[in-house]
Every structure is written in C-alpha cells, then in structure tokens.
Amino acid sequence: MSDGLQVLDVVVRYAGAPAPAVDGVDLTVPTGEVVALLGPSGCGKSSLLRAVAGLEPLAGGDVAWDGVSVAGVPVHRRGFGLLFQDGQLFAHRDVAGNVAYGMPTLVRRDRAARDARVAELLDLVGLPGTQRRDVATLSGGERQRVALARALAPRPRLLLLDEPLSALDRALRERLALDLREVLTATGTTALFVTHDQDEAFAVADRVAVMDAGRLLQVAAPAALWARPASRRVAQFLGYEAFVDVPSPGADAPAAVRALVDAARAAGVALLPAGGLLALAAGAFVVAPGAADGVVVGTVRVLRSRRGRTEVVVDVDGVGRVSALAPAGWTCAPGADVALHADAAAVAGLPG
Ligand SMILES: Nc1ncnc2c1ncn2[C@@H]1O[C@H](COP(=O)(O)OP(=O)(O)OP(=O)(O)O)[C@@H](O)[C@H]1O
Predict the structure, then answer these.
(1) Pocket residues for ligand 1 (CB within 6 Å)?
(2) Of 13, 40, 121, 137, which has fewest CB within 10 angstroms of its CB?
(3) Could you give all domains of the chain from N- to C-terminal order, each with its CATH number?
(4) Which Gene3D superfamilies does this one have (predicted)?
C-alpha cells in the first residue's frame, strides 16, 4: 500500500470549457515529502490542488490518502490544511487568536496548552512574541507567516499551498521560500505547493511536477529536472533559452555547435545522440576576453548587470541569441565581436 497522497488519473472539468482543466493526472506525494506543481498560468495547477482539497468535484479519477479514497470525504474532514496567496487572516482576532483558530478544540480549551502551542508555532515561523499584535499592523510577509502558523496548528496530514508567496516582492519571496522549506522540513509536513516560479519550486520542493495544458509533463527532483528535462517544452519552461540539433558524426557543423557538443561530451552530459537536442541555459557561453583564435565568436547585442554579474546577450552563428556570462565589470560596445567558451554546466541533452 502506498503512503501519503495518491492522485490517480484525476480529471477536472468546468462547465462550458472546451477542454478539461486537469486531464488525467497521476501523482504521488509520500509522507514527509514536499512536491511543487510548476507550470504556466492557466495550466491547471490550482484546479488540481483544489480537487485534492475537495473544493472541486472530480470529473474522473480518484484522490486517496494512504491508499484509501477521500473522494467522498468533505473538505474539512480530509485532514488537509490550506494556505492561499492571501492568507485571509481574521481581522477581528490578534495574531495568537488567528494561530489558535485552527487548533483542535481540546487544545484550544486548555489555555496553557494553547499558549504553548501558539508560542511554538510563532517561533517556528520567525515571529516570536507577536501574540498580541493586531494583524492589521503586520507586513505582507508577516501575514503569510501567521497564515502558515495557523495552517500548521492542527498538524494537517497534508498541507496544500496555492501560490502562498506570489503577492510578495521578489526579495521577500526568495527569503520566505527558504524559510518555508525549513519550516516544512522541521515539522516533517507533507505538502503540495503550487507555483509558477521555477526558482521558488526549486527552493521549496523535494520534487517538482511540471504541468502544461492540464497534463503532467515530468516529475523529478530539482537537480535531475534541470540536468535532464524530458522535452523541449519542459526545458523552455525551466528557462533554457536556445536549442541546437546534435550533428551527426562527421557532419559539418558551425564552430559554436561543435564547441558545445565537445564541452558537453567532455563533461558527461547525458543523451547526446545525433538527432537529439542540446538545450542552452544562460551561461552556456562564457565571455573569454583575449582568448586565442579558434574559439567561438559572438556578436554583442545588449549588456546588463545582474546581481553584480555581467550578462551579455549575444548572437552566435548556428545557435541564435543567448545570454553569455562575463566577468564582473567587463564591458564592450554593442555590435562588437567577443570570444566565447562553451560551458557544459549550463547545457542539457534532450531527446529530439
Ligand atoms: N471556476 C472556473 N470556472 C471555469 N473555468 C475555470 C475555473 N477555474 C479555472 N478555470 C479555467 O481552468 C483552467 C486552469 O485554471 P487554473 O486556475 O487551474 O490554472 P493555474 O495553472 O492555477 O493558473 P494560474 O497560475 O494563473 O492560477 C484555465 O483555463 C482557467 O481559465
């Protein structure tokens, strides 16, 4: 028998829609694991999460916990916690009142036990001592931390999170994603986490499930997903920006393609048969000022600074437009030619 959550061939259909929002998805989330559902807007992530919660009816398939169907079990009896983009705190309760709200009645009635549990949860989410704060005075990030504490209070067997960080600014989102990972791990919480942000999915989840048009395209641990995307669509969604056919042995190929294939082979990049594809992420080429003749040449289009590093958009013959990395402070005029090295660390092999 499988433990944890089993999503079995689930279909979600909205009245009048031409196609199902979720179209035969199979997914498991074993106890203690955090899985991110990642995909573009409208691909059906929230619909799937809501179907797991019991908020959308199943048009097909089943949702089970520990091998037992919960399809006929109402939302509040599934033992699943929910956290949305806007944590929807109760404005008339203070922080402690909000956190205690979801606790089992027995704990809520025992004042000492309740206060201890509230304190423990507020410590966990990084808000110690805020019990008496009016929730209207909290920042957006603090509100989501309180909402997380409230969702964890009943010790749900599964926590369902729908874009819980997307209302926050980027810097805060990055920090909270790491904190969220820590809290979920520390509490051993099993979780299904919806996001459209690749970085967030990679930061929070043990495994990432990539969705598109109602279907699951690939499920893998972050490093494996990045190294071996199953298709061009998955690679594009992860942020790979150019694709190059692997040439047949002995066939004529542009210098840049040969350099990429050689670098990838030397680094042991998987799956490089002729007819396959190389997917290039930012950094597949690195600016090598003063390099000798014979290296790849790119024509600089745009220079930009990102977190102290210089990124150069270059046109490379046989490859197209890609983002190359350059040493900090390096500069040159748009239109100039620059020498580039291929870096296999930003290259993945794909089936053709
Ligand atoms: N209540 C509804 N009634 C009709 N159609 C809906 C409803 N909710 C969602 N849809 C449609 O179902 C599809 C999937 O929507 P869903 O919200 O699940 O996607 P998503 O991947 O979570 O998108 P986003 O990241 O933008 O929230 C979309 O085409 C959407 O317009």
Answers:
(1) 14, 17, 21, 39, 41-47, 196
(2) 137
(3) 5-236 (3.40.50.300), 240-350 (2.40.50.140)
(4) P-loop containing nucleotide triphosphate hydrolases
